[in-house]
Amino acid sequence: MNEISMDDLFREAKDAALKAYAPYSRFRVGAALLTEDGSVITGCNVENVSFGLTICAERSAVVRAVSMGYRAFRAAAIVGLDSKNPVAPCGACRQVLAEFMPPAAPVRFGSSGPALVDTTIGDLLPANNPLELPE
Ligand code: THU
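That is the input. Now the predicted structure with tetrahydrodeoxyuridine docked in place:
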């Protein structure tokens, strides 16, 4: 990775978590994506009184990045500020991240505690179908 390290990406995710709208769970999450051109796009969880309409930090970052014109991410970091243990992305977010990341792309997740998990999107979502467009 060129100028942005996983440590940098993690710090950006932590900053983004401060923007979380999480009045119901009080569980603030931030995500940061590294784009192909070296930009960092962040997201946070945005909850809703209906609960079910809550959007996670990871999907908020992906939707934001794609809306800006980005289509491929080289790495992702996720931070759950109100947890002592690393906060792993939910199943829906793994699938949405995998849409725009190659299986070997690194994913780091953590929390306010010292433990970090370093993995790849392919390990988080094994046996995912590659993109196949109809002729
Ligand atoms: N949440 C995320 O934003 N990302 C995750 O990876 C785990 C869960 C959010 C959803 C909800 O607003 C709160 O955390 C509690 O589940």
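The beta strands are 29-35, 40-44, 73-80, 106-111, 117-120.
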